[in-house]
Amino acid sequence: MTSDRIVHLIDDDSGVRDSLAFSLAAAGLVVKPYESAVAFLERLQDAPRGCVVSDIRMPGIDGLQLQQRLKKVGADLPMILMTGHGDVRLAVEAMRAGAVDFIEKPFDDEVLLSAIRLAFDRSEKLGQKQAEAAAIRIRLASLSGREREVLDGLVAGHPNKTIARDLNISPRTVEIYRANVMIKTGAGSLSDLVRMALIVDAAASA
Fold first, then answer.
1. What is the 3-state secondary structure (H, E, C) of the chain?
2. Given this model, what pLDDT does residue 205 score?
């Protein structure tokens, strides 16, 4: 594990926090413990990319509220929640809102380690997708207004004749715009073009 893959461990129980921090560090992870969600949020600006492991039941700001605040400020930190038996409903709600996983207490260290590895893998894949989407946006920004309209028609699955009719231009002109779109975006085929548009749309809705 590289040093930028930090586990931000949040639990108000000092005994649990210290024990987990020791176990994770022994597994080769870099761990930063916090006694509360408030303490973590106060230092959020200095937190590098990593993942958050938090108890779901804490005084002040609980795990769900922390997740909501991180999402609100756009903090791209995958979250794992530690729950008691009666907190499963809350944990499921958190997963629907984007949490990577929840772990019921008591749990083995390996269960938590597996969840953390999954969180890091998902985070890295998301970063790669966002970088790809950003590169595609730059290419799409080079399109003229008419070229973008032709692209929208192609992505919608319309043939050249339909696009020509909708834009009140000739099919031959659509072909010219289509060729320009392919060149500017670097797409090798229509399927490449559709894939690019879908990547950008998915990144925008993430």
1. CCCCCEEEEECCCHHHHHHHHHHHHHCCCEEEEECCHHHHHHCHHHCCCEEEEEECCCCCCCHHHHHHHHHHCCCCCCEEEEECHHHHHHHHHHHHCCCCEEEECCCCHHHHHHHHHHHHHHHHHHHHHHHHHHHHHHHHHCCCHHHHHHHHHHHCCCCHHHHHHHHCCCHHHHHHHHHHHHHHHCCCCHHHHHHHHHHHHHHHHC
2. 63
